[in-house]
Structures are given as structure tokens and as C-alpha cells.
């Protein structure tokens, strides 16, 4: 089972964009004191010349919802084609 993403989780780089981190999470549901990530949470913007900035998580699992939003897991995609690459290894959710 993949680990759940949390505020501060890393995302991959892609297409010349550098890796970045998740900067938001749901403050009402915390994993060991850190907000859990759900779809729509924001990643730190990454930009390159002549390309628009982009910065959110678009897919989560239907196996766990937090306030009606799917929880994001390691391996879930960002809006820009990257993926979440780190999470809380002590908090895993089935796909």
C-alpha cells in the first residue's frame, strides 16, 4: 500500500522542471501532526522560460476521503505531469 502524502511531501520534476514540494494540506486532518494532502492541494510553483507556472495535485484515492476530497498517495499525479514521490511511511492507504 502506498504512503499518504502530507504537507512538505516531495514531487518529481518533469520536462525540464525541477522537483518541488507540496505546500498545503488539510489542517483538520493531520498525520503525526502534519496536514494530510487531498486533491487540489498546492505544490510550490516551478517555472522555466516560456512555460506557465503550474501547481496542484489532481488525483487521489477513492479509498479514503477527508472532508469529501480524495487523499493523495505517493505515485499520484500533479496537474503538470509530475508525481508525488514521498509521503508518511507509517500511514498507508490501499488504492
TrEMBL record:
Positions of the UniProt region annotated as Disordered: 1-26
Name of a matching Pfam family: PAAR_motif
Domain of life: Bacteria
Alphabetized InterPro entries for the sequence: PAAR_motif (IPR008727)
Identification of the protein by name: Uropathogenic specific protein
